[in-house]
Amino acid sequence: MTGIFSDRYKLSLLLASLFILGIGVSLYYIYSLPYELRLSSGYGAAFSPVYIALAITFLIGGAALIMALRYRNELIVFKDRELEANAANQEGEQTSATTISLSGIVSILNSGGTQKEILEKSLHAIAKELEAGQGALYLPKEVDGKRRIFLESGYALGLGESAEISFEFGEGLLGQAVSTGNTLFVDDIPEGYIKIVSGLGSAYPKFLLIVPIRKNGTVDGVIELASFTRISEDQKNFVEEAGKLISDKIKKQK
Q1: What pLDDT is attached to residue 214?
Q2: What is the DSSP string of the chain?
Q3: Which of 20, 75, 103, 149 could cysteine-pair with 138, CB 3.0–4.6 Å?
Q4: Whole-angstrom Cα distance, residue 62 to residue 90?
């Protein structure tokens, strides 16, 4: 019983039920009044307007109460959904935001040079920010009716300038990322999958991050980064935000 009185909505329902019950009891006693007063027959015409007026009043009052309760319930549901939506939006913003400055990427994208030069500088800046051992940037192109992504820029790849690397959409991890538009993170790269070579020797990285370059649902390329150290969530968000800026640059130069 205490729970009912502490819940305003349940209390409102209880009062509404008592109000409707009171209407029924009141109508009964009013209808029985002539009999209780021992009035002779023929009183119906005199009491009819009273019956009608009271009945209409009770109906209007009951309808108003029911509508008020229903509106209140709908308002509560609406407020709950609004709060849930706001919480989801805030959570999404917090998840996608990065504390790493994007000013360096913006500066590179606004500098002069060809698209290839700008993309190469951007990739190098991203790789250095993450202290990645290796990086690559691919752009999509349709060849013989098939969509493929081609290596556009590399960072410490150990490949000759004339080397050409490409994947079909959906082929391997890169093709899957560019096809779905989803970021992929591998935290246990099999030994031999990627080999980073330098003048001091060679080693195998353990972490791989693949981020589609996209904005507003359109994938304009993909960034691949290999690292010896774990890539944090903040760093992932940084690469995704940088990818959006790069996507804008690619679209402007198309």
Answers
A1: 87
A2: -HHHHH-HHHHHHHHHHHHHHHHHHHHHHHHHHHHHTTPPTT-HHHHHHHHHHHHHHHHHHHHHHHHHHHHHHHHHHHHHHHHHHHHHHHHHHHHH--SS--HHHHHHHTS-S-HHHHHHHHHHHHHHHHT-SEEEEEEEEEETTEEEEEEEEEES----TT---EEETTSHHHHHHHHH---EEESSPPTTSS-EEETTEEE--SEEEEEEEEETTEEEEEEEEEESSPPPHHHHHHHHHHHHHHHHHHHHH-
A3: 149
A4: 42
Q: What tens digit of pLDDT does each residue of 191-238 get?
A: 666 655 444 445 678 888 999 998 777 889 999 999 889 999 999 999
pLDDT in tens, 62-108: 666 666 656 555 444 444 455 454 544 544 444 457 899 999 999 99
Q: Is the distance from CB of 246 to CB of 213 less than 8 angstroms?
A: yes
Percent of the chain at pLDDT > 90 equals 29
> What does the block give as tokens for 99?
């504390």
